[in-house]
Amino acid sequence: MIHFIRSLPIIIFFLPLMGNKGWSCSIKKSQEMISFSGPITTALFQLGLLSDKNLKGILSFHQFNQINKNISQGPKIYLGGIYLSKKDFANLKAGTIIFYDSSKNFEKLFSSLSHLATALEIKTRNRLSLELANEALDKLYPWLDKCDVPIAALRREYKQIDQEIQNHLPLKHNFYFFLGKISPKKLPEIVIGKDLFIRELVEKQKLPWDRQLAVYGPWSAKLLAGSPNAFFMGLNAHPNADEGLNFQKIEFQSGPFKNSSWNINFMGASIPGAFQLTIAREFLKYFSKFEHNKL
Q: Bigger pLDDT: 124 or 289?
């Protein structure tokens, strides 16, 4: 039996930009909106608009309401795309804007609603986070009112974080990322390839990369055995994960993963866009201290 101890996590909170600065940023009064797009919902969260009365729905995967304690009521929560049908939009108001991430299911569904709604696609595949985060603001802008100041502030913040990543020294250890929490019984079944914040780090040459890895796929003992000094990361993006991003070391007392395993906990960790920039930066900062001492 493998025994393990969870260390206390370091937590980085993701808070809306708006706070109490008194900006009157809002969705236009005459415009109802639904977001089935991760980058768009992230931008709405950062602008403090998840409680806007004209936001009529978001996906269950993107429930940032659990983070923002100031939200007393929020939009309707829709289940994942495969569960959606036309009957879910029986009360859709004509002229509604629907944002969605690229999906054949979404495309088919929203084409059947084209007489009522304008559906705008956000292409997330193989995109870097800075480009995607700025595009989300661009797509939202025509439907917002008095949001120039917070949008400009967000763009500056994105650029600053991206520059910090560019300026950071690269990591030398090999890392393997698993989709799900690492537990004492077994590793998650799926290895994450060059996607999310991992793409950010690899494309900017801040992280060594095993070219054998597909974007997502099952792992093998042979693959992992090729990197005896690797670190193993479990990406816990479950909606019930911790509110703030944290790196939680799993200290196995024996076995191949001893002193080499962490869970990255954050409910928005699998959502493309702005959060991936911050995760990439904090990942570099946190794991750079292990370059010379594998603790």
A: 124
Tokens of 58: 């978001």
Task: Check: CB of residue 99 under 8 Å from CB of residue 33.
Answer: yes
Whole-number Å distance between alpha carbons of 264 and 236: 6
Task: Give the chain's domains with CATH numbers.
Answer: 4-13+166-290 (3.40.50), 26-145 (3.40.50.1980)
Token pair for 114: 């084209």
Question: Which residues make Cβ contacts (< 8 Å) with residue 31, sequence separation at least 6?
Answer: 54, 95, 97, 143
For the segment 93-125, what is each residue's pLDDT rounded down to a tens digit? 999 999 999 888 888 888 888 888 899 999 998
CA 161 and chain centroid, separation: 15
250 CB neighbour count, 10 Å cutoff = 21
Give per-residue pLDDT as tens, 192-228: 888 999 999 999 999 988 766 667 888 777 766 666 6
Strand partners, 249: 262
Place of tokens 């939680």: 248
Q: Which residues lie closer than 8 Å to 149 by C-beta, 6 or more apart?
A: 23, 25
Question: CA angle 199-205-210, nearest 5°?
Answer: 65
From 32, 83, 26, select the one nearest 59 (Cα to Cα).
Answer: 83
Q: Which DSSP state fits 64? A: G
Contacts of 68 (CB under 8 A, 6+ apart): 15, 16, 45, 48, 50, 51
